[in-house]
Amino acid sequence: LQECILSGIMSVNGKKVLHMDRNSYYGGESASITPLEDLYKRFNLPGAPPESMGRGRDWNVDLIPKFLMANGQLVKMLLYTEVTRYLDFKVIEGSFVYKGGKIYKVPSTEAEALASSLMGLFEKRRFRKFLVYVANFDENDSRTFEGVDPKKTTMRDVYKKFDLGQDVIDFTGHALALYRTDDYLDQPCQETINRIKLYSESLARYGKSPYLYPLYGLGELPQGFARLSAIYGGTYMLNKPIEEIVIENGKVVGVKSEGEVARCKQLICDPSYVSDRVTKVGQVIRVICILSHPIKNTNDANSCQIIIPQNQVNRKSDIYVCMISSAHNVAAQGKYIAIASTTVETAEPEKEIKPALDLLEPIEQKFVSISDLFAPTDLGTESQIFISRTYDATTHFETTCDDIKDIYKRMMGSEFDFEEMKRKKNDIYGEEEQQ
Q1: How many Å apart are CA 85 and CA 79, to the nearest integer?
Q2: Which InterPro entries does the annotation name (predicted)?
């Protein structure tokens, strides 16, 4: 996805773009696999999917589960480039948080907050005060700080200021600010306040939850940006094996494929193409589960997110569950896909993810993957090779968008500007040419 978005942006910016992919489908790691038979093959499961799973081509299964924040950066990128015209989105029906072995809905309205059994009555009042404070907080107006220095005061101190208890801190940090660990508590509060604002503003747009999901799966996203690139003259080649990245005097000059060299000035790729220029920074376990029932205690939602804060299960990092269903054209009628993921912390990753799988029982079929996370050791200043990071365990695209902005800045030498992505109004859109 990062590469597809960047090829779209670079094409709109008037660069000549050639996009090669060794796979036969768009999106690399962030593809959606269809038909279901291909998913069985990919995970080396013997035999064909049982008849009860319905038609294979009714399935589009994401390899990496993520939702879009309704007010987040990826939605902005889609709107500015008008890639929205190729996609349809549905709002996710609810976000849930795990506490003491049970799951509770993360309140999405004031009425829900008052009725929620996540906190006691006095706690609710204090929490409401805190939310009002966050909503009014403006980093450019010190009158809104109430004695807090956004660049110095830690988040731990802000929680203390509002006298919030441990349970509320847990769900605020992990279900609203969406941190994976508790490291944020001792960092300056500005970032956390902005994250809670993003959550609240995203929630305000559609009301049920702050998350959106594209019909037919996340694989539609890279395809949309690949189309954008093509409209602006970019060339796309699937099934194209990469034999060698050609380097002269420490700088990339081309890519060799099937005996030919395509020459270039800059190269963007994911870590799998340049294993000598990346370093392993961790692992993520993901378990794709096929269910014939909605998840218990979610009010039969046809889509939801569940966050298991690390404190609740004695871990350092959170466990996430994303669930979607036939309502999103990604599964056969009456079927649900739930994907659990977390950052690996021990030598037994499958044990680590068990609390999430327990919430999903009975599970009809599961597909387990453990992926290494890579980060570039070469930032591209000399080599002009720009390497994206592997997808982390978070359940939204904010970190992915930060990576895109970072690569853009390293390539272009200037800050990423959403305005740069706007389709030029006097351009001929590919769609209108045929008329």
Answers
A1: 9
A2: FAD/NAD-bd_sf, GDP_dissociation_inhibitor, RabGDI
